[in-house]
Amino acid sequence: MKERKTSRWGSMPFLKEFTNKLEGQGAHILYMFNDEKRYLDLVYQFVSQGIQYQEKILLLDKLSVYTYITDLLVSNGYSNEEISLIFFMTIEDFYLSEKGFEADENFQQLEEILQTNFEKGNRTRTWGQILADDSQISEIRKYESKVDRLLQGRNTISVCAYNAYITPAFFQNELLKIHEYVMLDEVIEKSPFYHKKYISFPALERERVQILEKENNSLKKKNEELLVGNARQLEREKFLELEKLNAEKANLAKTVFLSQMSHDLRTPLNTIQGYSQILLMNKNSSDLNQKISKIYNASEQLLNLIEEILDFTAIDTGRVNIHKEEIQVKSFLEDCVGSILETNTSDINIQFDGVPSELFIEADPVRLNQIMTNLLDNAMKYNRTNGTVHIYCDYEKESEEVKINVKDSGIGIEHEDLDLIYEPFYRSKSTMNNWKGTGIGLAIVSQLTKRMNGNYGVTTEKGKGSTFWVSFKKLNKQSEGIMQNIDEEQLFPLSQPLRVLYIEDNTDNIDVMRSMLRIIQTIDLQCVTSGKEGIKQVIELMPDIVLLDIALPDMNGFEALKHIKSNPVTKDIPVIAVSADAMESTIKQASEEVLLCLY
């Protein structure tokens, strides 16, 4: 096989290594791209390797991409006969009909093109860029499911490319379910969500995706109405008009991908929720308050969905650190129940039996709180009117484990669902239509419990309720009563206005913060929009507290923090990070930066 230059910017051996490992088997690969040059480089490498292996190639892309690839092939010594191995169609000709994206028509067309190669036993490569328009998501999901079914056992490598900037985040997760592999810039890995049960795409699953599609479109419409001139929307429109990708390069390694998605989704939601809460504090008509409440509730539902998906993805791929410590079960559960009671506005009665103070376990308190919150939320959500939730503990002598039980008086669970309820995204037919949810909560419970070497389970009786439980090894330790005397003056030290400096470049975030702190009359808030100006104002104003955004236009928040903490004049001023990026990796980096500042 004659070797030729594979890339203008340098070879990428991971694609070749992955192809060789397949040993004649096929692969259905998802590629979320966000860099134009990198995208063209991978298309060229994919096509040129196919030519070198004498494989049939189907390229579905823009005409400009095809022209660029063929010109580069010619300049690198490929003959017209070799280039003729490529069968090309434009995105518009292949994917789009008069009605838009039609899953059945597009699949039939693809099947007809590939069938000849299947019959002859020719190895085939396909590369298709798909534009995920918001109104066509369920059709694309149906098409991709049928393609995955078609490629099972076939000697075909298929790459489905989507623009990461314009493909909705929830749909990116849907795509991960029906592509066995996901390609990042430097590696091809198994998709964390892929499972053959998602391929069939039955009516209930299609209905669920359509509901998510409608909710996404509805919230986006409201967001656009509230945030006219939002910078992210303008960038997207500019991209669509100029057919260019954003110049910023990003590594689509999973941690960075999740962090970016977390930040970009939470930022507009923060603005929507902040203004909604402020508007609800005003004296409005009941009709207006009802409409504002609907906006807030919709944003809260989407935020919960985002956080659950991000949490589950991080847990499922092993990127959650577990920090075990001794936990007194009684006081811990009292805190959990207390937090629920503070926000409980339902008619559900929560009962907590006395737990012996000598019961101790070893677990991560943050993750255990996450487990209990999911179990308590479910117990209240799937309960009956004026029902009860009963929290109590058992000590299993044989296994030496402390068992924490959450019992509800709800609808119970069907026997056939018991083996499935801990699967991610699974929702039973009896609950799907009556209660909103993602089907991730119990998957998070099971994953976190196993990561902490615990056990979990459920007992249920249809029509009478269920008892979910988790258990952990008992520690032999005596309780220690600790009393803390807190001076009230420490809690309420504001005898004069508190001077607060907010360093933030997003004007929407500044307006929200200013509006919310205006309610507290003893707050004197000053705002600046860059890191350099912020450092200067910290020295001049000597504020009592600094609120610092992590992503500033001229420097990141960590650099600004170093300047503040390295100056003897300002090093003792408390600094609070304010950011939509709440990923564990970012929090860890912040902790490390603080430690460096101390030394």
Topology:
Blueprint: H1 13-22, E1 27-33, H2 36-52, E2 56-61, H3 63-75, H4 80-83, E3 86-90, H5 91-95, E4 96-97, E5 100-101, H6 103-120, E6 124-129, H7 137-151, E7 156-163, H8 169-177, E8 181-183, E9 188-190, H9 203-226, H10 231-242, H11 254-281, H12 286-316, E10 325-328, H13 329-343, E11 349-352, E12 360-363, H14 365-381, E13 388-396, E14 401-408, H15 429-432, H16 441-451, E15 455-461, E16 465-475, H17 488-491, E17 498-503, H18 507-517, E18 523-528, H19 531-541, E19 545-549, H20 557-566, E20 575-578, H21 584-598
Parallel strand pairs: 1-7, 1-8, 2-3, 2-6, 6-7, 11-13, 17-18, 17-19, 19-20
Antiparallel strand pairs: 4-5, 8-9, 10-12, 12-16, 13-14, 14-16, 15-16
What's this model, at a glance?
This protein is an alpha/beta fold and 599 residues long. The chain is built from 21 helices and 20 strands.
Structural overview:
By secondary structure, the chain is an alpha/beta fold. The strands form 4 sheets. Strands 3-2-6-7-1-8-9 form a 7-stranded mixed beta sheet, with helices on both faces. Strand 4 (96-97) and strand 5 form a beta hairpin. Mean pLDDT is 80; it is low at 6-10, 247-252 and 481-493.
List the keywords:
single chain; 21 helices; 7-stranded mixed β-sheet; 599 residues
Structural class: alpha/beta
- In DSSP terms (H or I, runs of 4 or more residues), the helix count works out at 21
- Which strand-content bin applies to the residues? 15-25%
Report the principal-axis shape. Answer: globular
How much helix is in the residues?
40-55%
